[in-house]
Amino acid sequence: MTEHQQSSRRNFLRNACLSGIALTIGLRWPALGQTIGDVVIADEVLAAGQELMSWISITPTGQVTIFNHRSEMGQGTWQAIPQIIAEELEVDMDQVIVQSAPANPGKYGPQPQEGSFSIRGWYQQLLRVGATAREMLITAAANQWHVNPAECYAENGYVIHRNTGRRLGYGPLVKDASQLPPPGKVALKDRKDYKIIGQPLRRNDTPAKINGSAIFGLDKKLPGMLYAVVTRSPKLRGKVKSFDDAGPKSVKGVKYVVKVQRDVFGFLFEEVAVVADSSWAAMQGRKLLTVEWDDSGFEHLDSEQLYARMHADLYKLPPSAAFETAFRNTPAVLEAVYETPYQSHSCMEPLNCTADVRDNSITIWGPIQEANWIQANLSERLQIPIENVTVNMTFLGGGFGRKAFTDYPLEAALLSKAVKAPVQVLWTREDDMSMGPFRTGAVHRCRGGISAEKKIAAVQVITASQFISAGQEKDAVPEAATVNSGQIPGLLGDYYTSIPHYSFGGISTRSPIPTMWWRAPGANIDSFACESFIDELAHLAATDPLLFRKSHLTGSRCLALTNRLAAISNWETRRAHDGCGVAITECFGSMVGQVVKVSRQTGNKIKIDKIYAVIDCGWYVNPDIIRAQIEGSIVMALGATVMHATHFKDGKAVEQNFNNYPMPRIHEIPEISVHIMENNESPGGVGEPGLPAFAPALCNAIFDLTGKRIRRLPFSLEDL
């Protein structure tokens, strides 16, 4: 059961716990030098004037409530987090209610939904909370029966006495359990004993999303709420010179036309908002708004100019004498340049946010991916104490990094303050796709040499791209390249020990276009170049691409994944020019290998026949969620590889809707087979690592079939 609602957490704890009608425990913020907080009971921290971080509460009816401090944007935290706690607590998932926690790092700990961190960052704490509650309930039952707690065990919401079969439900035990001190140490289950973790249980947020009861940002309504749409400079950095509000104010329902700002990495973009009593009136009013923009003081670049600048930047880094010597001394050398495009995030739910700003408080609701940063930014910008800033997270219709940003909540808050009423800001699809920040385009210069033993003796990757920022106005100062230091996102860690000489460097290309992270940041562009180039080096060495990779792997974990990938894709039975490509990447604590199979169809079009994917994410919770995330990542990568890109003309984004930024349709999705490695390693991420390997695996497959190397994305499968 899912309830996506907000409540006063302190009041809930007081009412539910201090009255003695519930067992409520959680984590206290870790002391200095500790990585995990102490498990404590609610009345202990409340009496000390403190707050629990994450917690569970069990009522006399046996109902379990979990406050989820992570946003849910489709990645499955509303299922995985309760599933972890339910396992150690020994309750059925049907007994669990999930509620969303507002932003407050002092109470709940770090809350950013990025870096695929929800499980790998919190699983130990969640397991301990569940196990602690279970042991307290067992002790309460044992005390009632006057037996040793070791003679009792918990199962399906009951405490059972082994010798007599007596049982008590959790509900009647919570009053006594709430009076017990939490045990200092609890034993956690072995993975072999799990009943819930590791099972493909149905997601508890799915029914609400199907029947329409799930609350997304646009569903939020407040008494007296107004609606706003914003006109922004098509050249992004333009400043408002003047505007004529006569047209918008002629539309029935339009109340205000006001200047507003949005914050992009500290740079304030100027805008004009139309505020009305309905979203329709606001949109109609905006159509009649005339704004004169001052577009001076910054460049108005075309895509061709951007990429010409990146190509020039590739050669600005001072050379490394040690690498150049190693490179020249290899028997066979190769150089190649790769390009990746700018991309919009294009979440299915466009940006939106609702704000209610009072004299000394701010409350916002919306699809928020990074609650803590937004809370801090609003406090600083509006000069309101951070404890008076409440950020409520609704469900997100996709995030991909874009909804971690501060700009759209600031717009809503500034407008609410200006008109002295709650305001919901709506971004149209055109706003969402053309205003940025964007994933940066990039150009990579790759050089490598093969030894007499047919292994990589030296490899260098120099990247020119925009760094994540509001836009760079000055040339970057090149730094000297070094040998055998630094890393490049997406590259397998084993290569750093098996390649004798490597050199990775980058330079920030000057451009006023705002850029930011995009699903699997860094790895989503670097992996295309690195894994494509490794394939080219394998061809230079006249070695099977997968065996060539294996010859450089030093760790048993990566070798096991590679062997599994070869087995499920029947790699060893492939023939020359069979249309098979491979890529293996590593990011956010997980490794993913993919094999793509392609063929030539009638009309000479290339068809993607099947994709095999293997992920090693270590300890995991729900295999269905993992498969869904890998499949979704591959579909997203497919669109970015062969279908869409953001181009610029005279400083403006060209693509503004799905008519010229097409998304993959269901009939265009090939068969995807996902396999999960089983081991006892620490958990890694899942929501992002599935994306980077697809583009190079596809391009390597096309080379295997056609002999044509693809070094520039996106490309059309019909033009090969």
Please characterize this protein's 3D structure.
By secondary structure, the chain is α+β, with helices and mostly antiparallel strands. The chain has three domains: 9-211, Aldehyde Oxidoreductase, domain 4 (2-Layer Sandwich), CATH 3.30.365; 217-298 and 351-426, Aldehyde Oxidoreductase, domain 4 (2-Layer Sandwich), CATH 3.30.365; 303-342 and 438-719, 2-Layer Sandwich (Aldehyde Oxidoreductase, domain 4), CATH 3.30.365. The chain is 29% helix and 24% strand. A seven-stranded mixed β-sheet has the order 11-12-9-18-15-16-17. Strands 2-1-3-4-5 form a five-stranded mixed β-sheet, with helices on both faces. Strands 14-19-20-21 form a four-stranded mixed β-sheet, with helices on both faces. Helix 3 runs parallel beside helix 5 (118-145) and helix 16 (523-540) runs parallel beside helix 20 (694-706). It is globular, with a radius of gyration of 28 Å.
Query: What is the makeup of the main sheet?
Result: 7 strands, mixed
CATH superfamily of the largest domain: Aldehyde oxidase/xanthine dehydrogenase, molybdopterin binding domain
Query: Can you identify the CATH class of the largest domain?
Result: Alpha Beta
Count of discrete alpha- or pi-helical segments spanning 4 or more residues: 20
Q: Pick out the low-confidence regions.
A: 1-20
Overall geometry comes to globular
- CATH fold field value of the largest domain: Aldehyde Oxidoreductase, domain 4
**What is the annotated CATH architecture of the largest domain?**
2-Layer Sandwich
Structural class from helices and strands?
Answer: alpha+beta
Round the mean pLDDT to the nearest integer and report it.
91
Strand order in space, largest sheet: 11-12-9-18-15-16-17
Radius of gyration: 28 Å
What portion of the residues fall into strands of 2 or more residues? 15-25%
Distance between the termini: 50 Å
Total tally of structural domains: 3
Helix content: 25-40%
- The strand count comes to 27
